[in-house]
Design a protein that fits this description.
Blueprint lengths: L6 H9 L4 H9 L1 H11 L10 H19 L7 H20 L18 H15 L7 H17 L2 H12 L4 H8 L3 H23 L5
Helix pairs in contact: 1-2, 3-4, 3-5, 4-5, 6-7, 6-8, 7-10, 8-10, 9-10
């Protein structure tokens, strides 16, 4: 049965045209892909676009496009799925958030569906979602606003590595694959990004470093 096969065996079946193998592969990565959508979907779309809808549309995209994966199958399949899902997120943003008349500066890269400030807003929104005490709402909003500003001051790779590790909950090796880095380099970059974020927050909020 297909369900007993490992990922490489399922990929071999998929290469041979057995499309049910794609459904199994997609399901095995669904939780990580869902976190990706939850992190990167603009908060303004909450209540209008469900992550499950994005994932369903992305699966249809993958079903149409999977033969292209095998043209350069040296990349991890999960990384390819992220590209497919990322493109679907970008399409949703273009459809629902971007005006028809826009200049080239408003085009968004996959890694940051809303540009540098947008990814900072997504990160800050995720943090806000973990802090749910109504009594702390005002302080929470101030903290989230400060966090968004600080994240916006990070360079794109540092912000992206925090997205991948903290909010998509990818392992260091998975993060390295996504960013095209060696695992030790990704680990060092993550530690550096956390330290830089802490430094910016301390400066912006007037808190002396320890």
């Amino acid at each position: 049965m297909l369900g007993t096969l490992n990922e490489q065996e399922l990929l071999e079946r998929l290469r041979d045209g057995e499309q049910p193998a794609l459904a199994l592969l997609y399901d095995r990565h669904r939780d990580k892909l869902r976190r990706m959508v939850q992190v990167r979907l603009d908060p303004k779309l909450a209540g209008r676009i469900a992550p499950s809808d994005v994932l369903q549309e992305a699966y249809i995209d993958a079903l149409k496009r999977y033969p292209h994966y095998f043209e350069k199958a040296d990349q991890p399949f999960f990384g390819w799925l992220r590209l497919v899902v990322g493109q679907r997120i970008a399409d949703v943003h273009r459809e629902h958030l971007v005006a028809k008349k826009r200049d080239a500066r408003q085009e968004f890269a996959f890694g940051h569906p809303l540009g540098p400030r947008g990814s900072a807003a997504c990160l800050a929104s995720c943090v806000a979602g973990t802090l749910t005490s109504p009594s702390g709402a005002a302080a929470r909003n101030e903290d989230v606003a400060a966090l968004e500003i600080a994240l916006g001051e990070l360079d794109e790779v540092d912000r992206e590595i925090l997205l991948l590790r903290h909010f998509e909950e990818l392992s260091n090796s998975e993060t390295a694959q996504v960013l095209g880095l060696q695992a030790p380099a990704a680990s060092k970059r993550y530690v550096r990004a956390l330290a830089r974020l802490k430094q910016i927050m301390e400066v912006n909020m007037g808190t002396p470093s320890a």
